[in-house]
Write the structure tokens for this entry.
Amino acid sequence: MRNSFYLKMAADSIRKNGKMYFPFIISCISTIMMTYIIQALSTNPGLSEIPGGENLKTILSMGYFVLILFSTIFLFYMNSFLMKNRKREFGVYNILGMDKKHIMKMLAYETFYIFVFSMIVGLVAGTILNKVCVLLIRQMMGADVALGFEFSPEAVVWTLSFFIIIFLLILLGNIYQIRFANPIDLLKSGNVGEKEPKTKWFLSILGVLLTGWGYYIGLTLQSPINGMPFAFLAAILIIAGTYLLFTTGSIAVLKILKNNKNYYYQTSHFIPVSGMLYRMKKNAVGLGNITVLSVGVILLLSIAVSLYIVSGNKDGDSQYAGNVISEVRLSEDTDDTGEEVKAKLNELIDQTASETNNTVTGLSSYTYLNLVTLAADDGFEVTKDAYSMLAKQSPASLYLTDQESYNQLTGDNISLDENEVYVHGTGDEYTKKTLSLMDYQFSVNVMEDMEEFSLDNETTSLISDTYYIIVEDIETLRQIEKQQKEIVEGYAASTNVSTQIRLEQDINEQQEIAFGEQLRSNMEKEDMDLVVVDSRTEAASDLQALRSGVLFIVLNLAVLLLLMTVLIIYYKQTSEAYDDKERFSILQKIGLNQMEIKKAIKSQILTVFFLPVIVTGIHILAIFLLMRKLMILVMINQVNLFPISVLIAFLVFLIVYMIIYRITARVYYKIVQ
């Protein structure tokens, strides 16, 4: 047979199986479009000109590989649904005389058609939307909006290469299934059902225990950053528990309903309960997939909504009290009180102001030491275990300063006696009368309104327990530093001098950045041990770059997962409709009317649809606190917006879910008819 025959046959096959192929083609176009956009943004030269743009491009490049992974899984998963529903068709072709090599040739042309069409539409749509994304990013980061056409040949090459590989792998997988399948098995594939499963109480109880354990970790984990392995463990436990509960728990519920004769022996209940029970193993896995994906969609949408809300907020203003901040590490000599550093730094600040034609209107310096410890019965313990990601106990972060620095910083006039400290906890206050820290025993005074060293936010306390401690003098601070170095060695912190520099109010962003760069250069010439020199503008730009990059990655993944959820539901309902068509036809012949069939179908679809939504809502509530803490990584102290974002995301998801319910219910009923 000529190639033109196969070309025509492949085109007719796609057209006649439009209900199956159309969602798959939409999936291909969407993943191609999103992949192109992220790659084009990560290589866009215009972003490098924006403050923080290089950081943004780095984040987008990392997100590109995550998107590729999800896209690959997504397309293979959708293709598996497509092939499952076409195996009977291939079996008919084979029995009617078409060799397997001819079927495989037709499949190759079908794959070619889909690839070419999806690639053209996806790249065109991606090119158009890429310009929109660039404009949005520049607006979010406060940069000038650049007009003109945006096209990235490099992104086209990468996208084309990646999807050629994906479609070739999909085609090879499909050919493998056809080549080694028996024609009779292909013909009967649509009629293969599941045996009625037994109730497995042990696995049901195990599912409850695993889910409860995951909930407990999520609710009690104090620091998701230091305890990242435990956060990952919680996710694994909840996912495993979800599948077990759907696979075994749902069977137990259906068996209970079946044993309730008053409920079971009704037309609207008998058909859906018996049908779902018969194929529950297959249904349960699908419901578990929908639930897990739904949780992912809602959480990703919540993060995206939160980031979008705060995208215009310059958090650098609240993070830095001055226009420029510098931190210098003191030498290991414990006799170094930092006075020489402060004096030299003051000279360099005046020199920098003269060189950049700026005026310094205010200056504040303080000396501090930041220790990571574990809470003890009588105070805090300095140990290497505090730095372990697998530590059973959450770490406590201590910020120590001397009273002279504190008085200069705040304008207060506190006076400490020997071995006395002031303590302020940003979460829970320190309630003990004494505080033990290595070889030191301090008497404690609690100051509830203590100034927090210009950090002025609750971020740190949401990640770990944080305490601000004022000691008597710098000598005590240096001795504490020396002792902790002997204990934790390579993990040891150093005493730093932090300086906030305030410039005149009418200074613009470029002048502020220039002052910071010149100060950094002058300090490096003096061989000062720099920790950081940063400006408020650069800090805000870096934060906006982080948020913008995470926003676009999260939004793309959310859309991809949502599309995956929708299509799984669609394919699941469509494939089950074809399975149920003959069964409902028999029931109709023995006296079941159209109204009773429609009522039974509605009962079954409602059960299948809204059970995952209920479980999703429970999961979201259980891991809400953990997600709120993780938001600190990109939102600083704006986590109070997260509850609103979760609610908005859940409502958006519910609306989409209801639309899909109405569409698939109508499709299901038409197929059964």
